[in-house]
Amino acid sequence: MRLFKENKPNRKPLLISIAALLVIVAYCIFTFANVSKSTTQEKMNITQQAIERAVVNCYALEGFYPSNIEYLENNYGVLIDHKKYVILYETVGSNVRPYVEVVQRGNTM
Description:
By secondary structure, this protein is mostly helical. Helix content is 54%, strand content 11%. It is built from two helices and two strands. It has helices at residues 12-62, 69-76, and strands at 85-90, 99-104. Strands 1-2 form a two-stranded antiparallel sheet. β1 (85-90) and β2 (99-104) form a beta hairpin. The termini are far apart.
């Protein structure tokens, strides 16, 4: 005969704590992934804006649009990470503004 009733451990608070921790960890991972994507997009936008500013500066100073992106890199200090980005640069003539687009390369780390 027992004098005292045995108390079973209450596991409910522990399970709630574990579930809350898992939700917080999942939220942090999701947020980090979104921040990483938006940072990559912002870097591409900055690169494209730098190229476009250099194109306009070249036309204003020299009277023609550059025929290739290398001209901007050599003469206007445009820095492009060619390992991360492909630059689509299409010209029609020296007096027509070129088409510029920055595209991310696949499989970058």
